[in-house]
Amino acid sequence: MCTSFKKELLTGQHVLTATNPARTVNTADVFKAALYTTAATVNATTTAYSATNEVTPVSGYTAGGKTVAWIAPSSAPVSASTGTAFTTLSASIVWTIAGTLGPVFDCVLIYNSSQGNKAVSVHTFTAQTITNGTLTLTMPTSNATTGLLRFS
């Protein structure tokens, strides 16, 4: 694939089939991050957000998760040396919890709530619960080797 095509996929510049309507708005879709319990089967085969086995809503966490944003497309370059297109969320995902967030959870699903809740990516971490505290999922540096999404 052409390297430019990889980056253009990240910015929605291509409609690949006639069954997909052309995008007529120049605004970013709304993406969300939802937390899932250890009982969930959320992985690379996940196609859409589902409330099944999502953590129980509590003060500081709403069902469906939290709105997140990607680094602006002009800032999400392609590595000339590797031909890898990449992007990362623009900020860490932070939930300040009052009460107990659980049951035990170990992954976050990033999904596009503007496009039928379509799944984007799943990221796992050590199983945990949070009681009256802050959960911060720190985003990696946006580059060809550590970017949250990388196309090579």
Written account of the structure:
The protein is mainly β. The chain has 1 helix and 8 strands, in the order αββββββββ. It is elongated, with a radius of gyration of 17 Å.
What features would you highlight for this structure?
about 150 residues; mainly beta; four-stranded antiparallel beta sheet; two-stranded antiparallel sheet; 8 strands; elongated
Distance between the termini: 9 Å
Total count of domains: 1
Order of helices and strands: HEEEEEEEE
Main beta sheet strand tally, sense and closure: 4 strands, antiparallel
Class derived from helix and strand content: mainly beta
Radius of gyration based on Cα positions: 17 Å
**Which whole number gives the mean pLDDT?**
87
Task: Report the β-strand fraction as a percent range.
Answer: 25-35%
User: Can you count the helices?
Assistant: 1
Spatial strand sequence of the major β-sheet: 2-1-5-6
| Unreliable stretches | none
Q: Summarize the amount of helix as a percent range.
A: under 10%
Number of strands: 8
Shape: elongated
